[in-house]
Amino acid sequence: MDLLGTLAGTWGDGTRPKDLYASTVAKAPARWVPTLVQGLGSSDKRVQNGCAELLSLLSADAPALVYAHAERLRDRLAAQEPVVRWEAACTLGNLAHVDDRGVVVACIPALAAQLAHESIVLQGHSVRALGKIAAAHPGEAPGILEALVHAEKHFAGSRVGYLVEAMEVFAATTALQALHAPVERFVRRHLASPAASVAKKAARVMRLLGRAAPKATRKKPSALEARAKAKRARVKRA
């Protein structure tokens, strides 16, 4: 099969990267890894994007095979194509636990820099990758936590949910207990977030920390609100 040729064509049912992964790549990963790495350097943007996505999927199932080409993936963090960059971030995160040469750890500054990017997708993948690196390499966790907290200004509105969710790694990893206090300080600020999804994530992290999230207190209605409520009740009974 001409995998790169297929990726260069029109993507549809059966020819999208996720479909090709299930039908072809996942069945013989060792065979296809060199082809996918080669495709990252293609002049065809569609081929670049497809290979980046396929390598990302493969890194979750066969990280050792993909890690052999970790340096090429590291270089893709600076690619012009946004898809290639965020798939590279995702892939490197998946490789953190097999990073015996320190290639992924060396990518921490580049990943942290992408937290300020305007693309929410690139931000999200970078946050998750940094969280995975922190879990796999506890010695790097303090610096990663500092970078995540410092990046809060770049995560407006519900986008900050990515950072709050990343705190689950620090809360759930036994080796990172020394960081629970700063994690709690960060998360506690978002318990009352107007974005329900963010508040829910914050409460989950607090439970992982063994801290019960404060119960929401019901605001006592004002005299005006009480009269309006009583009037509505009278109208309803009439």
Short description:
With 238 residues, this protein is mainly α.
Highlighted features:
Leucine-rich Repeat Variant, mainly alpha, 2 domains, single chain, globular, 238 residues
User: Cα distance, first to last residue?
Assistant: 76 Å
Assign the CATH superfamily of the largest domain: Leucine-rich Repeat Variant
Beta content: under 5%
Could you tell me the CATH topology label of the largest domain: Leucine-rich Repeat Variant
How does this model look, in words?
The protein is mainly alpha-helical. The protein has 2 domains: 1-148, Alpha Horseshoe (Leucine-rich Repeat Variant); 155-238, no CATH class. Helices cover 62% and strands 0% of the residues. It contains 14 helices and no strands. The longest helix is centred in the N-terminal third of the chain and has 17 residues, at 45-61. It is globular, with a radius of gyration of 23 Å.
Write the layout of secondary structure elements.
Layout: H1 3-8, H2 17-23, H3 29-39, H4 45-61, H5 63-67, H6 70-75, H7 82-94, H8 108-113, H9 120-136, H10 141-150, H11 161-172, H12 180-188, H13 196-208, H14 223-237
Helix pairs in contact: 2-4, 3-4, 4-7, 7-9, 9-10, 9-11, 11-12, 11-13
